[in-house]
Amino acid sequence: MRVIAGVAKGRRLASPGHLDVRPMMDKVRMAVFNMLEALHVLQGARVLDLYAGTGSVGIEALSRGAEHADFVEWDPRVVRLIRENLRRTGFEDQAHVFRMRVEHVLERPHVLGEPLPYQIVSATPPYEAVDYNVLVPRLLRSPLVGADSVVIVEYPRELAGLPKMVAHFHKVRDRRYGRTRVALYCHEAQLSRTTSPEER
């Protein structure tokens, strides 16, 4: 697994090995970042990588011009893996790794410090470990996101689909890659920046 593009392009990331971690597949990560680049939200962005795993999403964002990334992961072994990948890519000074449960962060968003909200939020949870009908509305209604935020949610194709709208956020993309689906939400204030209607 490598960084796909940007200043750290080609840098190899430490793999999870025997750990119970499911990194975002390269082809999915490439598709996600093509969407983000089309929305012109990467440069100078503050990024939140929830259920961060290897940290590949936040690190890819930093490589492509994001200013700062916060990573949230509970397993201490995986936290060490993220820190190793930040060291390998040279982004240690642009990142913070929080050993916390995502549920705790959603209950008390300000534990991550200021400023909130983030411009890009990625949630790639273990498929069987979360209730997406709870996770997605809580995330899209939280202070972690705002009018300039784009939210990415990875989920299994077995689900019928995620909500088309929550609060002021509209689902503008929903694409399938094998067993994986990725939904992208934009605040209604950003809808004029999207390039096409929702795609399934």
CATH class: Alpha Beta
Count of domains: 1
> How many strand segments?
8
CATH architecture: 3-Layer(aba) Sandwich
Taken from the alpha-carbon principal axes, the silhouette is: globular
- What is the structural class? alpha/beta
Strand content: 15-25%
Q: Helical element count?
A: 5
Query: What is the arithmetic mean of pLDDT?
Result: 90
Which superfamily, in CATH terms, is the homologous superfamily? Vaccinia Virus protein VP39
Helix proportion:
25-40%
Low-confidence stretches: 194-200
Order of helices and strands: HEHEHEHEHEEEE
Radius of gyration: 15 Å
Strand order, main sheet: write it out.
3-2-1-4-5-8-7-6
Stated plainly, the CATH topology is called: Rossmann fold
Terminus-to-terminus distance: 27 Å
Describe this structure in words.
By secondary structure, the protein is α/β, with parallel strands linked by helices. It has helices at residues 26-38, 56-63, 76-89, 102-107, 132-140, and strands spanning 46-50, 68-73, 95-99, 120-123, 150-156, 165-166, 169-177, 180-187. The protein has an 8-stranded mixed beta sheet with strand order 3-2-1-4-5-8-7-6.
